[in-house]
Amino acid sequence: MTVVAVVVHTGKTFGGGLNELRTVLAEAGHENPLWYEVTSSRNAPKRMRRAVNDGAELLFIWGGDGMVQRCLDALDDAEMPVAILPAGTGNLLATSLGIPGDVAKAVDIGLNGTRRQLDLGVMNGERFAAMAGAGFDAIMVHDTGTAEKEKLGRMAYFRSSLKAMRARSVRMRIRLDGETWFTGKASCVLIGNIGTVTGGIEVFAGASDSDGQLELGVVTAKNAWQWAKVFSEMVVGLNGESHLIEKARGRKIDVKLKRSQRYELDGGARPRTKRLKVRIEPGAITVCVPAPPAP
After folding, report:
1. Strands 114-123, 268-289: parallel, antiparallel or unpaired by DSSP?
2. Are 233 and 217 in contact (CB under 8 A)?
3. pTM, whole model, 2 decimals?
4. pLDDT in tens, 7-57
5. 188-236: per-residue pLDDT in tens?
6. Which helix (H) or strand (E) holds 65?
7. Is the dihedral of CA 138, 139, 142, 145 positive or negative?
8. What is the Cα–Cα distance from 101 to 258, expressed in whole angstroms?
9. Secondary structure letter of residue 10 according to DSSP
10. CB-facing half-sphere around the CA of 130: CA atoms within 13 A
């Protein structure tokens, strides 16, 4: 029988929680899986590597996008199957992959679903699976506390987004695949491996997590009014199309910032920097996804 390992963020939960997870795994024949718990996603890489060294053949990750990002960054084996148990606030990657917020169904996908290769982005030496960037999104992520997210869920980001809208733009130069693509002031640079953000808003139409390319977007909104216009245009279904947004697609991105800025990877805040060096890592991991419907 497959050796199953579970890496758990104990501060995250969904469905019937970890008790339901243990019950579902036991009913599927995995009464004593390898089990590793962390109270912070920062400690997840060490547990992830330990699980592999202990002989795991299938890895379950219980947590949100930040937890998944930390684990995938530590996984060197592109063939090791990874199953996501979406216990976070946004769960962008899980949603994109069609993994539901139901413990039993998510476990079944891990055990019996389809396995496929997934690209990963690499920013400043660290992998990410969904979205990364600097400016608006990084400010919002940094200013939203864990306690707020636990209490309010996705609404916790609303207050910090108002502050992010008022942040000053920064001059930047962006090179895409070796050519200068953008020079000027912008309030956000967003790089995506998938196309949809929280709330199901599609910002990168036609994005694929397995095409060997990353999506690139720059928002030039200068104030809260212009940001409101950007969001309203997204919500009504313009697929992120706006005169305040410039978009492109490529394999290698180099962003130089006039002022140091915070950046974020899959909802995890990172320290300030003046440069973002980004590239795609095609087929970097194997993920468990729902099996296609029978013909």
Report:
1. antiparallel
2. no
3. 0.89
4. 999 999 999 999 999 999 999 999 999 999 999 999 999 999 999 999 999
5. 999 999 998 877 778 898 999 999 999 999 998 887 777 677 767 766 5
6. helix 65-74
7. negative
8. 41
9. T
10. 25
